[in-house]
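go over this record:
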Amino acid sequence: MMPRVIPVVMALVLVVGVAVDAGAHARIPDAPVSHAASAPRLDARVTAVPKAKIGSTYHRGCPVPPRRLRLIRMNHWGFDGRVHPGELIVHRRSVKPLLYVFRKAFAAKFPIRRMRVTAEFDGSDAAAMAADNTSAFNCRRVTGNPGRMSQHSYGNAIDINTVENPYVDANGHVHPESAAKYLRRDRVVKGMIRPGDVVSTAMRRIGWKWGGRWVNPDYQHFSANGR
């Protein structure tokens, strides 16, 4: 007669299976990222852009259709010294070079205040800048010069830490207004981009140009074509 051990084995398999399944759903993506068992990682993931993530940042007549854009989900160091999840929408051709930059920035623990898609600010560049947000794609006119389309409309430009790195338009207005105190660049400030630092160096290596060197400086701005 066969020993009565099969039910016990089956029970153990079921218990183990439940434990594994429960663990598979334990991650909470919106909380600060925990890497207690290993070193923090950029953990970049690239996908097509869901419609909800584009929102009002795209409209009829924009130069680049959504199918040519990509959503990058990746971690970044915050001003609190902890790792946080972020999201960035860029042109598909810009994914590889920008991941090189953000890997360098992450390894150096360069802090980023927040990294949210501009749809979370209803496409408002002013609101995104006031929130010290780091973002890329947004189909819009140039802030302070509505006669030109911004390079952000193509997904090949990015603004980083917009308060610590303000923009001065052709009329001399500072964007955002609260950032005027950061026009003094001869000091080390958390999140500020300076010549020769990890961000400006990595951007130069991928061939992207820095608006911080313009006559009307845009310290937050980098683009693939220098505009």
Observations:
- The CA atoms of residues 65 and 165 lie 29 Å apart.
- DSSP finds five helices and ten strands in the chain.
